[in-house]
C-alpha cells in the first residue's frame, strides 16, 4: 500500500498553488571570486598562528634592540664631538707654546709693547650719544581706537580684488635701482 504523506486535500491545493523559483545572484566581483578561492587548511591556520605568536614574542626584544642601537649611535656622536674638541684644544695648546703667538696675544689683549715702542690708545672715539627727549613718559596705559582686524581684512580683500596697478594703488614710489660706479678711462 502506498504511503500517505499525511496531507489533507486542502493542504495539497495550497502546495500546488505556490511555485518554486530559483534564486539568482549577481556575478561576484573579482575580489569576491578571489576570496572564495581561498581555502584554509589546518596547517595554514597553525602557521599563521605561529607567525602572530612570533611577532608578539619578538616585538619587545626587537624594540629593546633598536633602542640600544639608538643609544649607541648617540654615544658615538658624543664621543666624536668630544674628540674634535680635544683636537681643537691640543691645537690651541700648541699655539700657546709658540713665543710669537704669546707676543701677539699680549699686544692684542693686554696692550703690551716691546721696549722702545710707543703705544697710542684712543679712548671713546664714538660720536656723542643722541640727546634724550625731554617729554616725560606717561605712566598711564593708552588704548588705541582702531579696528585692526577690519583694516587687515580690508587690505587683504583690496589687494586680492583690485585691478589697479601697483603705481596706481599707493603713494609709495617704486624702488629705483642703485647706480653702480662704472670704471671708465684711465689706467
CA(first)-CA(last) distance: 141 Å
Q: What is the average per-residue confidence, as pLDDT, rounded to a whole number?
A: 79
Summarize the main sheet. Answer: none
Helix-strand sequence: HHHHHH
Count of helical regions: 6
Which residues form runs of ≥5 with pLDDT under 50?
A: none
Radius of gyration: 47 Å
Strand content: under 5%
Q: Count of DSSP E strands? A: 0
Overall shape: it is flat
**Class from secondary-structure proportions:** mainly alpha
Instruction: Give the helix level as a range of percent.
Output: 40-55%
Explain what the structure shows.
The chain is built from six helices and no strands. The chain is flat and about 130 Å long. It has 187 residues and is mostly helical.
In short:
This protein is mostly helical and 187 residues long. Helix content is 55%, strand content 0%.
Keywords, separated by commas or semicolons:
187 residues; mainly alpha; 0% strand
Which secondary structure elements does this structure contain, and how are they paired or packed?
Layout: H1 9-17, H2 30-37, H3 42-96, H4 99-110, H5 148-161, H6 166-169
Amino acid at each position: 500500500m502506498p504511503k500517505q504523506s499525511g496531507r489533507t486535500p486542502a493542504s495539497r491545493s495550497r502546495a500546488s498553488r505556490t511555485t518554486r523559483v530559483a534564486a539568482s545572484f549577481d556575478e561576484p566581483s573579482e575580489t569576491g571570486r578571489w576570496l572564495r578561492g581561498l581555502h584554509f587548511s589546518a596547517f595554514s591556520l597553525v602557521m599563521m598562528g605561529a607567525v602572530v605568536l612570533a611577532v608578539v614574542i619578538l616585538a619587545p626584544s626587537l624594540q629593546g634592540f633598536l633602542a640600544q642601537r639608538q643609544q649607541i649611535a648617540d654615544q658615538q656622536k658624543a664621543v666624536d664631538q668630544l674628540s674634535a674638541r680635544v683636537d681643537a684644544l691640543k691645537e690651541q695648546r700648541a699655539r700657546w707654546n709658540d713665543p710669537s703667538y704669546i707676543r701677539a696675544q699680549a699686544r692684542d689683549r693686554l696692550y703690551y709693547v716691546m721696549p722702545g715702542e710707543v703705544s697710542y690708545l684712543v679712548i671713546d672715539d664714538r660720536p656723542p650719544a643722541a640727546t634724550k627727549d625731554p617729554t616725560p613718559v606717561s605712566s598711564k596705559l593708552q588704548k588705541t581706537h582702531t579696528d585692526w582686524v577690519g583694516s587687515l581684512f580690508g587690505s587683504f580683500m583690496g589687494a586680492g580684488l583690485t585691478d589697479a596697478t601697483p603705481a596706481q594703488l599707493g603713494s609709495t614710489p617704486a624702488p629705483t635701482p642703485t647706480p653702480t660706479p662704472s670704471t671708465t678711462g684711465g689706467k
